[in-house]
Structure to design on (107 residues):
């Protein structure tokens, strides 16, 4: 299960030319000093987005706030299985997430 889900995460990130996947044991993406996607130990994908987009996706896809290691990841949504049915949309969301963290003050 982990390898299958990790492969999906890697394939999604690989379609985004402006950033790359980092991390060996905890795969993630980051830019401008901010992490913006994460693959956790529960084999779940979380993506960080603006509050407005977050609310839209939570309603539209019946998803929730993303948690990792029992901690609520503020600004992240859980990419559920229904959302993964449209991989092009997730690639678009990853790119939107990248743009979002690039608009934040650098860490």
């Amino acid at each position: 299960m982990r390898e299958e889900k990790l492969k999906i995460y890697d394939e999604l990130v690989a379609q985004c030319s402006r950033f790359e996947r980092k991390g060996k044991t905890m795969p993630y993406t980051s830019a401008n000093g901010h992490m913006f996607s994460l693959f956790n130990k529960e084999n779940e994908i979380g993506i960080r987005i603006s509050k407005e987009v977050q609310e839209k996706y939570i309603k539209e896809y019946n998803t929730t706030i993303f948690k990792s290691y029992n901690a609520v990841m503020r600004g992240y949504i859980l990419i559920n299985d229904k959302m993964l049915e449209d991989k092009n949309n997730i690639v678009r969301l990853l790119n939107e997430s990248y743009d979002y963290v690039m608009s934040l003050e650098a860490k």
DSSP finds four helices and five strands in the chain. The helical segments are 2-14, 51-60, 81-84, 87-103.
